[in-house]
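@channel sequence for tomorrow's demo:
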Amino acid sequence: MARHAPARERASADLMAEVRKLAAERKSVVADLSGEVLTRYEAASRRFGGLAVERLAGNLPSVCRVKLQPSQFSDLRRAGAEVTECPYCHRMLVFEGAFDEVE
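structure tokens (generated this afternoon):
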């Protein structure tokens, strides 16, 4: 057991370094959010146990995986917002690049 301690300590140190790096990245991203988006994110994060955001890949949200109907997808596309709410699971839905994938 004792011979594995240095490996565990290195792995733990690596994980803690990654946590610090991600915390710094998060702080930077949060600073760029509007107050409205941040409020919506924090509420969704509490409601969904930290999994507040999903990405739209084509017309398929990444978390709930319920395919958007063509009319819903068109409505969202016309609205032009990059962040909205999923009509099914109500998480924040990020469109970045999604409309480019389905032409």
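heads up for whoever presents: The beta strands are 53-57, 60-61, 83-85, 92-94.
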